Amino acid sequence: VPATRVELTVSCRQLLDRDTFSKSDPVCVLYTQRPGSHQWREFGRTEVIDNSLNPDFLHKFVLDYCFEERQNLRFDLYDVDSKSPDLSKHDFLGQAFCTLGEIVGSAGSRLEKPLTGVPGKKCGTIILLAEELGNCRDVATLQFSANKLDKKDFFGKSDPFMVFYRSNEDGTFTICHKTEVVRNTLNPIWAAFAIPVRALCNGDHDRAIKVELYDWDRDGSHDFIGEFATSYRELARGQSHFNVYEVVNPRKKMKKKKYLNSGTVTLLSFSVEAEHTFLDYIRGGTQLHFTVAIDFTASNGNPSQPTSLHYLSPFQLNAYSLALRAVGDIIQDYDSDKMFPALGFGAKVPPDGHVSHEFPLNGDASNPACRGIAGVLEAYQCSLRRVQLYGPTNFAPVVNHVARSAATVLDGSQYFVLLIITDGVISDMAQTKEAIVNAAKLPMSIIIVGVGQAEFDAMVELDGDDIRISSRGKVAERDIVQFVPFRDYMSGGPGAGLSMAGLAREVLAEIPDQLLSYMKARGIKPPAIPPMSPEAPP
Questions:
Q1: Could you tell me which residue ranges the C2 domain spans (predicted)?
Q2: pLDDT at 139 over 80
Q3: Cut 0.85: pTM above it
């Protein structure tokens, strides 16, 4: 199941009028690109609205939304003059380009853009509204007990467990939950369990749910006790006489005239609540703040030599620039002011040549922010000419630099992401671990991109995916570090674009869950956003 599905509603205002005796009859065509491809493919069309220059299209586009991908969209408008599906037979009214992230990241997830493409004419505006599809977000919590189940074991009682199946459109069943085994009892009480409603019934509350009971056996040949059927709508009534089920074994029922049942199952409790998503917080106004830190230590090699990771070639971007561009292009859709603080570490800086581990790339210590990713790249290239690569490689100062900002806004309105690009040789492991453990309490995430051919064992340790990072006996309360080796994506050649999309995907994949883990740990709920109409200015 993709992270989220988003429904796009399209409206236009003041479209070009192409019809002589009446108004235009607009249709909107959406095109998308596959990750890493520049080819536009038609995704779908709205209905045609007759005689309107201000259409609100009813047909919605439903797209899979991936935070970590740059999802390019193109909207073309045509004035439909005949029944022909061939677009070249109709009048072009203008087009707009954006990314799905741009729509979602706008205030109230509502983006307004001018339509362009007809020379010398004002083409009007397009209004795009993104809404997360809601049916898939509820999580139900259920608890069951059973009574007087059939005894299946020769010595001692049964060891019962239940298996839940949802029914599919074609009448088949798909397993969706297994309870734990309760040992040696015919009257088990199972632990409460949480399950997404879509897993239980795929949004259809009347769809059959089949439940089978088994007696667990060590050798895996579990004995069938019996089964019953229910539906989400039934279960949602909660604890009541409606939710006591007879467990029936059809084979026994056929054989024995006096057979009643093989026991009963009772629903003890039922509750449902919406699981908040990354998008809820973004729509609610949470801003992502993106800070870049670049490794200026001597182990990168002399920048004037082509072998250096910092080599500035007139013909191609170096690894540092490529990594920055790939990640920055996506992050910037979520950062409203597009101002990115950019720091360097591990160099001797002017005027006196002291070694600094958090110097501003733009040379302005009071405000290290650069305008857009282009501004960061420019400041990076200027710094390379100004400073002397040195050492050691200390991460802790830049981690603490961002942590100080994050510590001032704990209410969930802002979330900080630090991108460290490094050749991976680290000198202050103990201090960095300490800094990360402290930062794990704050609204921040750290992405480390390793460039060059070094062994990145220390970076993998910081990543905490397998073993949560700890310092002086304190374990980080969340996993906030994502490490990615850049060389895995360095294909060069014509596929370079694709590998950059892959890099961005890998680098950003954990951010939504890390943001959610912070909000959940702090009990911060996203502010409720009133539904927006296309007219209302945000």
A1: 1-115, 122-245
A2: yes
A3: no
